[in-house]
Amino acid sequence: xxxxxxxxxxxxxxxxxxxxxxxxxxxxxxxxxxxxxxxxxxxxxxxxxxxxxxxxxxxxxxxxxxxxxxxxxxxxxxxxxxxxxxxxxxxxxxxxxxxxxxxxxxxxxxxxxxxxxxxxxxxxxxxxxxxxxxxxxxxxxxxxxxxxxxxxxxxxxxxxxxxxxxxxxxxxxxxxxxxxxxxxxxxxxxxxxxxxxxxxxxxxx
Length: 205
Hints:
With 205 residues, this protein is of the alpha/beta class. It is built from five helices and nine strands. The longest helix has 18 residues, at 136-153.
């Protein structure tokens, strides 16, 4: 085991470099706002709620709500006084289970000279059309596609997903998803309409 690298954080205490992660929550829990904020912080290297951030290029696959994504980015920039440079937006879904689509995605990034340290898929459902979320086999194939991207770029791959209806901290679909990721983050809204983030899984810490 001598010589094996120790896990390193992309965002201290939250996201590990070169790993798979999932962010999930109820519809309306602001998972997209959260994922965008994380993406901008990594792209700019600016601290995230006091946590140290390791700067890296970011690719954000916006598979739904494309029309409003630019306004959300601008609102984030205005609020946080940082500029979303080194953040590449992809305005259509990438079907992760389809090896040919994943290969095209990789080739497109390589052609542009983009070597992301963070890749975000928002949402998993839109990037895995036709997949039975309750099937361990189907989910396993999706996770294989995500892991291929992780290995290709040695990047953190974060997918945005949903929780079970009205359960907040229970991820929707097969447990194979939760089993395959290194980090699982649950975002919920409490009775005071405050957003609460919980680290449900952190494999190596």
